[in-house]
Specification:
By secondary structure, the chain is mostly helical. The chain contains four helices and three strands; from the N terminus they run ααβαββα.
Length: 113
């Protein structure tokens, strides 16, 4: 609670939104689509369709080996989507590192297909 009060609620909201927009825009450039329409998206977590040619397990494991964690879809969507959360003390540098790692993993999947 102290961290939230130190940062300020409005500042935290803005930081989460900025991270969400940045990641969604980069994913869109890579052709990775969100599960929900843009007017229904959260600023704390977003579900994306898996890129063609890569399973969730492969994507998860390769990103985790690079120091990043994503989350599986649930129920009927577990083999079709993955989720990215933006909460916590993530820096712009960490977000850009995740995006670079994601692009590397996804490009490797396309090259193998």
């Amino acid at each position: 609670m102290n961290e939230l009060l130190e940062e300020g609620v409005a500042n935290r909201f803005h930081r989460y939104k900025r991270a969400a927009v940045h990641i969604r825009e980069r994913m869109a450039k890579l052709g990775v689509k969100t599960l929900l329409p843009s007017d229904s998206l959260s600023n704390t977590i977003t579900a994306f369709h898996l890129p063609p040619g890569i399973s969730y397990a492969t994507l998860h494991d390769q990103l985790k080996a690079r120091g990043y964690v994503i989350y599986a879809g649930q129920g009927q969507l577990e083999s079709k989507i993955f989720r990215i959360a933006y909460m916590g003390a993530l820096t712009d540098l960490q977000i850009d590192g995740f995006l670079a790692a994601f692009e590397e993993v996804a490009a490797g999947a396309v090259a193998r297909a």
